[in-house]
Design brief:
Quinone Oxidoreductase, Chain A, domain 1, 2 domains, 13 helices
């Protein structure tokens, strides 16, 4: 079938993107779903830093590629071998397909699925196929989804069925921002009532982490962000301490503004400076959790004697460190019950043709969770 999709042919083109136009919206051919795959009509697709990091070259992927990984949509057609989904089902896409058979999957850690990671790196679906092309030119899939398009063919293992009735704009948040941020707090850190936390970086993931920390009963929640506007939103969502690093001159100032060190420091920005700040804010015996994805060349020199003498922990968290098929609907229930008000994170809406302008808005730092509405 013919669809319109956003195609990236070259990484690292400088902005502003509204002028340089690195993403071209064009007609693309989409093959029907194969074994274990489904065809989805995309309703809403979130604009995420993981997409921006491919555009600017921080996270290299094979090009040409159709970007996008956070979305909500409706199943149109199912391929052979799919028994748990049917036409009309509402689904949220997940950016790591889980085969269900490798050791991490059997261990209950589908975010670490080995065939899923191999497929994502190769720009193919879980079954090894590419369903997108322009004439004879094959296009890569972005981490198994490629939802910056009117329709997408994905592995059935790349989506989770949700109950109908949730607004698609809200539902899309749960596929990446909420899943990643809340999961880092609830699953990876295991925050309990009375614990303390610092969230460094208030994008969609960071704000979701903040909401989860508040919902978990954290008694002190420190929000660290360069945007004063986002800091004020963080206060309204339950943050007890606000820090703009531009106003911090020393480590002593940082700790004073935070009200002291915390049990858990979260880097949700995906940068060395953000991780360093989260680490500095973590107490002796505490844990620093990072869920951002920086450039693969980024590194941080760990003070080993401090890690030993203070029994520090460094933890990575990917895809929320849980089971998306369980967690997504669990977080949706928390939202419906008013315990995880993720609707407060919704930003601006753009059309598919405005996608370059949407990423300019992200680069400005003033965005919340912007999205494409189809």
């Amino acid at each position: 079938m013919k669809i319109r999709a956003a195609v990236l042919r070259e990484m690292g083109i400088p902005g502003p993107y509204a002028q340089s136009r690195p993403i071209q919206v064009t007609d693309v051919e989409l093959d029907p779903p194969g074994f274990g795959e489904v065809l989805i009509r995309i309703k809403v697709a979130g604009l995420c830093h993981s997409d921006l990091s491919v555009i600017n070259g921080d996270r290299p992927r094979g090009v040409p590629i159709v970007l996008g990984h956070e979305s909500s949509g409706e199943v149109v057609e199912v391929g052979p071998g799919v028994g748990d989904l049917r036409a009309g089902d509402h689904v949220v896409t997940v950016f790591v397909p889980s085969c269900g058979c490798c050791f991490p999957c059997l261990e209950g850690r589908p975010a670490l699925c080995e065939p899923g990671a191999q497929a994502n790196t190769g720009g193919v679906l879980l079954g090894g196929e590419r369903r997108l092309h322009i004439g004879g030119e094959l296009l890569n899939h972005h981490i198994g989804v490629s939802c910056f398009a009117e329709y997408a063919v994905v592995s059935s293992r790349s989506c989770v069925k949700i109950r109908a009735g949730l607004n698609h704009r809200e539902a899309a948040l749960f596929g990446c921002a909420v899943l990643t941020g809340a999961g880092a707090v609830i699953n990876r850190a295991g925050i309990k009532a009375g614990d303390t936390a610092a969230i460094v970086g208030l994008g969609g993931v960071g704000l979701s982490a903040l909401l989860a920390a508040v919902a978990s009963g954290a008694k002190r929640v420190v929000a660290v962000e360069l945007s004063d506007e986002k800091l004020q939103l963080a206060r309204s969502l339950g943050a007890t301490h606000l820090i703009n690093p531009r106003r911090i001159e020393s480590d002593a100032d940082l700790l004073d503004a935070a009200g002291g060190r915390v049990d858990y420091g979260f880097d949700t920005a995906g940068g060395v400076a953000a991780f360093e700040t989260a680490y500095k804010l973590t107490r002796r015996g505490g844990s620093t959790v990072t869920s951002g994805l920086p450039n693969p060349q980024s590194s941080f020199a760990l003070p080993l004697s401090q890690m030993v003498g203070e029994e520090r922990e460094i933890r990575g968290s990917y895809l929320g460190s849980g089971v998306p098929a369980v967690d997504i609907n669990r977080y949706i229930d928390l939202y419906r019950n008013g315990q995880l008000p993720v609707d407060k994170l919704l930003g601006k809406t753009f059309t598919l043709d405005q996608i370059n302008e949407g990423f300019d808005h992200m680069v400005s730092g003033s965005n919340l969770r912007d999205c494409l509405v189809f």
